[in-house]
Specification:
10 helices; alpha+beta; two-stranded antiparallel ribbon
Length: 282
């Protein structure tokens, strides 16, 4: 086998001159129409409540979304389907942890915890539901899973220090710190049912095979937890603001993922316009 042949075999497009075309092809009609229809009927999660997954976000996005301005970068049904697949694989991994005797708690979407699986902090206000609590080599660890396409893993660093520098990954870092924060705020509610986490953890698995490709652990510092509070307060101010807040997407490194960004087919190349205020619904 020649080197060229070997490169094709290792390619995600396979050993074919039509490989890339076939890889990108998605048939219209049939089951895909059913899936798209199903997703169109599902209620979208809004911005009226501060959750860990929305903490690291530009305050202008919060304000525009809660004032009825349609986003310019709507999530398609295909990405929504991938998110559901990610949740299914997370459930599988949690079951495997349980079988190995290390799972301490798994918050499923349909799981009730004292009548409500949502954990709440009143001041500042945050509400959210963690993913997994497990015993990692004798340390109680609060874990959150993320999923990615295998061909996208080439853009993900392999060290925690590099990974957390990326703004898109940093928002996950903040999110998991917020779950850690919520658990300790709710210590009296939870401590009879589970131990309190001593560290945070994130793992990223590939959607096509479920293999974990990134695995990072850290102990939140006091500064990390104070940042959670600061961002929650920023979020609350954005919700209550009578005027549109200034955009912080560039400052926070979030331009390409802004819900109100412009340019680009998938990710934005430019940030929102001040003229969006003209679309506010009174």
């Amino acid at each position: 086998m020649s080197d060229k042949k070997l490169q094709w075999v290792r390619s995600i497009y396979g050993d074919s001159t039509n490989g890339k075309q076939w890889h990108s092809f998605i048939p219209s009609g049939g089951v895909n129409d059913l899936l798209a229809s199903w997703h169109s009927k599902q209620e979208e999660r809004g911005y009226n409540i501060c959750s860990p997954s929305k903490l690291y976000i530009c305050p202008r996005v919060v304000w525009l979304a809660t004032h009825g301005v349609p986003s310019t970068k709507k999530m398609g049904w295909g990405k929504r389907q991938r998110l559901l697949l990610g949740k299914a694989i997370e459930n599988l991994i949690a079951q495997q942890m349980d079988d190995e005797g290390v799972l301490l708690y798994h918050w499923k979407d349909d799981f009730d915890l004292a009548g409500d699986s949502t954990l709440i902090s009143e001041e500042p206000y945050i509400e959210g539901t963690p993913d997994i609590l497990f015993n990692m080599d004798g340390v109680v660890t609060l874990s959150d899973s993320k999923s990615a396409r295998s061909d996208g893993m080439g853009y993900q660093p392999t060290t925690f220090e590099e990974w957390v520098k990326d703004p898109y990954n940093y928002k996950y870092f903040v999110q998991i710190n917020a779950y850690y924060y919520l658990m300790h705020v709710n210590r009296t509610l939870l401590e009879d049912m589970m131990p309190m986490p001593e560290q945070c953890h994130v793992f990223v698995f590939a959607l096509d095979d479920g293999i974990v490709r990134r695995d990072f652990t850290w102990k939140p510092t006091r500064e990390n937890l104070l940042e959670v509070e600061r961002l929650a307060e920023q979020y609350a101010k954005a919700l209550a603001s009578p005027v549109m807040p200034p955009c912080k997407c560039k400052q926070m490194g979030l331009v390409k993922f802004c819900d109100y960004g412009t340019g680009g087919k998938v990710v934005a190349t430019d940030c929102c316009s001040d003229n969006l205020i003209n679309q506010v619904k009174e």
